[in-house]
Every structure is written in structure tokens, then in C-alpha cells.
Amino acid sequence: MEKVRTRFAPSPTGFMHLGGLRTALYAYLFAKHNDGDFILRIEDTDRERFVEGALDVIYSSLKCSGLNYDEGPDVGGDYGPYTQSERKDMYLDYAKKLIDLGGAYYCFCSKERLESLTDENGNRKYDKHCLKISKEEAERRIANGESYVIRQNIPTEGTSSYEDLIYGTIEVDYSDLEDNILIKSDGMPTYNFANVIDDHLMKISHVIRGTEYLSSTPKYNLMYDAFGWKRPVYIHLPTIMKDATRKLSKRYGDANFDDFISKGYIEEAIINYVALLGWCPKNNAEKMTVPEMVELFDLTGISKSPSIFDEVKLRWLNSEYLKAMDDEEFLKRATPFFEKSEVFKLYDVRKIAKIIKSRIEILSDIPEKVFFLVSRPDFNEALYENKKQKTDSQLAKQILPSVLTTLEQTPSFTNDELFATLSAKAEELGIKSRQLFYVLRIALTGLEVTPGGATEILDILGKEESIKRLKTAIELL
RNA sequence: GGCCUCAUGGUCAAGAGGUUAAGACGUUGCCCUCUCAAGGCAAAAUCAGGGGUUCAAUUCCCCUUGGGGCUACCA
Q1: What is the mean pLDDT of residues A171-188?
Q2: Which of A88, A96, A250, A432 is labelled catalytic?
Q3: How many other C-beta atoms lie within 10 A of the C-beta of residue A26?
Q4: CATH superfamily, domain at A257-324
């Protein structure tokens, strides 16, 4: 059987779109599930859209997502070059061949003439005006330096059909299609042409891409047929939406992989979440690594309808990854975010990391969660009041001085020992330990809600700072 | 406008001609608890509408409605 070869063919726009990332993922999963090859090809035929540094964004996004390609511009391969601009001459040769086969023709129409073809509805369809120009005349005009393009020659009648593995049979009348430009006046091919030539030359067996190509695929099939090439198998993927009516867009900053990374999402969670948008594995698993997805991947689990990107669920998945991380790994990933706060200079971030891990969903939640460690917010006595705990400022006034004494006499400020000591203290005072902890925690932090309990916070603050804070709190009572 | 295409809770979704129509996120409640998280348990919430076909349709067909895509010298 023919080897499965899939490709991801992005344009270097300077950012990795999450929709594109999912397409890449599915192409990768399909290839790897079938022991095939996954190829990266850069589609940079639009010179005006070239963005500096865009290639690195593509390479690094794929690699850090675990999508290692077998062939590509930076890794080589037997079917290169893998960057379309470097294949320019090849396309022109094939275009000329297609002209000889009757599948294309030279066109010399001016922009003005093209615009004059627009009808009352604002639609325009090329009228095959240049089809009647003989090859000899065309070549003469070209030799004279006239600007030209090459257009595909689409039949005026008939129906074309193909099988998409997701959407089934797709039928389109040729009359609904247009004689699109294959080679632009700058000599570069358009996507319409380059993708066909490259997919064939690179022996791509399965073309996996978004639904935006679902209804234009007949045009590509026409070319495969004209050249006498075998058509690839098509797998079109539904769109990822921002909401019911809008796509995930670069413009709103909700589509960029890197933006999510800097917001404190981790790569594994993003790739995992994006995998779930439009695909459900047979075993209904939700948290999966890329290798596990390779194992489970199956086209029948791909849906046909667009799905809405839900950041709330992504946050949850991200938190699952965070919680599952060992402390060392968590600390490593969290460090850049700790460094956005002063805490890392003042305290042992290891201890902070421990109490924070299950209390954040994304890493950028860290600075605000630990701010109270840097400086205790001002607060009023009303904070001591808690009906459920049965605590109030009176109780605080009563017990805090003696708690202070106990703390001053406690040699070891570790969580466990503090817990034991203070529990005993509560008993001595004739109150519930939770009441003591509650009041103490408020005094220490000035916050109704904190990550970690009183003793954990004492442990982090250390004896000196804890006592200093407690004294201040007592003075304010 | 024309063509292609899609339609299960708020969201992601499983499902199949006969089911109490899964599961997850979120929401709500309870338990646990040194506050809050985490964890445990529970609850509310879905087959767009109308016609067919059939003993039976959410599942198959048609229409309507609604959504998405294409309709570039962008990919």
C-alpha cells in the first residue's frame, strides 16, 4: 500500500493560528497513526505578505507542540525545496505543460477590463476572453514584453464530484467555477496552482485542510486529471469559531498560539484542547498527550460542524496539566511568572509554588495571587467577622496577643509544627482551632481569601516577618 | 445574490430507527476543610421548526429557518 504522507502548508504570516495548529495536529496524527510521514511546506508565494521572522514562529510552534515533521525547509527531505518561493521556475514549466494539455491559457486582460466585468450584484466572473488567443500569438506578445497571467481553463458545462473523507460526496457544477489565475503576472503561482503541483511532487497521499477549500477542490482535481496524476484523498476540517458567527481571528488576538503561551497556558494543554475541537476519540478521553492521540486518532471521530473555542474549558484543562505536574516541573514553568512579582526575592518560591499550584488555572494568575506576601493590604476589623467561623474583631483582640507570644516562643516555623503548636494553643484558649487559624490568617494577610492556610503562610513568611505583621495587626485593633 | 456545507444542553460532544439521550467544561447545592482552591457526591440543562417514510424517528428523506465557507494576480 502507498505510504501515507500528509503535509501542513502554512503561509508565513508571523503567527501560528490555533485553527492552523489544529490542522497541523490532525495531519500529524493521521500520518503517524498510519506510520506515515508528516511534511511541512511553506507557502510564501504572496511576496507582499512576507513577514520577517515568520518562519521561526512556525518551526518553533510546531516543535514545542510535539508535532515533529519528517521533512521541511529546516530539516530537509527528498522532495525539497519545501519553500514555494524557491520552487518558482518549476511551477511555470508545469503551467506551460497544462496549457499544452488544454487545461490553461495565457491571459493579457487589463485590470480595467476585468473590473468592467463586474455585474450589478458586484460579482465578477472572467469571460474567457483570452482563451481564443492562439498559442503563437500569446508567445509573440509575451516576447514583446507584454504582462500576462496564466488562467485555468474550466469547462463551461458538466459536473465534477469527489469523495471527501469527512463530508462525503461533493458535487459542483463547472459553471459555478471560474477560470482562476494559476500564474500571477510576477511569475509566482497562486495557491490554486502551487498546492496541486507540490502535493503531487511531494507525494502527498492525503490532503488535510480547512473547509474553505471544500468547494474549490474540483478545480484542483481538474488539474490532477489533466496531468494524468492520481488525485489525493481529501480530508476537510470544520472551522474553529470564536462565537456562533465569527471565526477565531488574528485581529481579536484570540487565535494566536504565542499569545496563549504568554498568558500562561502551557503547550500541552493548548494542543490537547485544540485536538478536542472537532474530534472525539472513541474512548471519549479528554486529557491526552500527543503520542496518546496518535494511538487513538480516527477520522470517524471528526465532526462536520464548526466548533466554538471555549477559553473557560481551556483554562480548566490547563489547570489539570498544572496539577498533574511534579513540583520541580511546575516551579520551572512558573518561574517567569513569579519573577513578575517581588515574592521571588523575598521568600522561598518553592513553598509558594506548593500552595499555589492547585489554586491557579493559568500561570499568569500567579502575581495577583501572591501579592499579599509582598505587602499586606490595609484592612479594617470587619474582616475578622465571619459568621460561619464565629469569629470577629473582639475575638481577635482577645487571642492575638497571646498567639503572638506563642509564636515568639516557637523555634521552628514549619507548617507541621506550627499546626500542632497552634492547635494546642487554641485548646488552651478554649476556642476551636479553625477560629484561631481564621483570625490569625486575616491578621497576617489582610485578605478574606488567600491561597494556603494560616500555618502555611507563617511558614512562607518566616518568623520575623510573621511576627512583624502580627504586631502591626494587633496595634490596629 | 449564486454555489458548497453544517445543525444534540450555555460550550465541547457521544449516540443510534425502539436508550432513563453518555461524558466533559461551566452553573447550582451538599460533603470534606485552617479561609479559598483542590478532592468527593448530587442536581438543573439538549435532539432548531414543519412535513414525509416507518409499527416506531432525535436518528432516514424533503422543505423552511439559522450558522459557516467559497465566489481575489490571499492562502
Answers
A1: 95
A2: A250
A3: 24
A4: Glutamyl-trna Synthetase; Domain 2 (1.10.1160.10)
